[in-house]
Design brief:
It contains ten helices and two strands; from the N terminus they run ααααββαααααα. It is mainly α. The protein has a two-stranded antiparallel ribbon.
């Protein structure tokens, strides 16, 4: 049998037993963040790298050593707070990057908040990401997806989504540059909300 070290799961357990999550990673995270803030803000003056690194080292040790010795109450242990909060922060970062990818793929016309995106594409992308991540996290346990599948069938839903996606792509491809400036994206797809509200 292969040694436990050469299997990824066994290697992870060995690193965990050495204190990777309890000592090394929180220490490196705190040291790096404090050092970067001190270097960028230049609180101690110009070219004070040695002082910045010493202060960052001391602050990281002040956080990690009481955790290792167990001298902190459970609710006030910064390492436990960091270890429980960072996966959620990482999930938010992944969701934001996925949103930027979706907007970058589907939208290039209008500048809003410094990014190129029509507002409705950003709104649809946010809704889709909430649905995707909520489904992966098990938030939607009401059985709505089973109801859709039993009512319409998975093939009908797939065809509907495909028709909508291809309709949007065709609307963007066939519209000329001059038309795009005069006519909005929704009007090119047949939605005229101005007539609906009497404008």
């Amino acid at each position: 049998m292969v040694s436990e070290v050469f299997r990824l799961e066994g290697f992870g357990k060995i690193l965990e037993s050495w204190g990777l999550m309890d000592a090394l990673l929180p220490f490196l995270l705190i040291f790096t963040l404090v050092f970067a803030v001190l270097e960028k803000s230049k609180i101690l003056g110009e070219e004070k790298r040695n002082l910045n690194s010493a202060i960052a080292l001391i602050m990281a040790l002040i956080v990690v050593i009481p955790h290792l010795t167990g001298n902190l109450p459970a609710g006030y242990d910064p390492v436990l707070v960091i270890n429980s909060a960072l996966p959620s922060v990482s999930l938010v970062v992944v969701a934001i990057v996925a949103l930027m990818i979706m907007i970058g793929v589907f939208a290039h016309e209008k500048i809003m908040l410094g990014a190129t995106m029509p507002g409705w594409i950003a709104f649809i992308s946010v809704i889709l990401l909430i649905i995707i991540f909520g489904s992966a996290a098990g938030w939607w346990v009401s059985g709505f997806d089973e109801w859709l599948d039993s009512t319409f069938g998975s093939d009908a839903l797939a065809v509907f989504i495909m028709v909508v996606v291809f309709g949007v792509i065709i609307a963007f491809v066939t519209g000329g540059e001059g038309e795009r400036e005069k006519v909005g994206a929704l009007k090119r797809m047949g939605f005229d909300f101005g007539k609906l509200f009497g404008k």
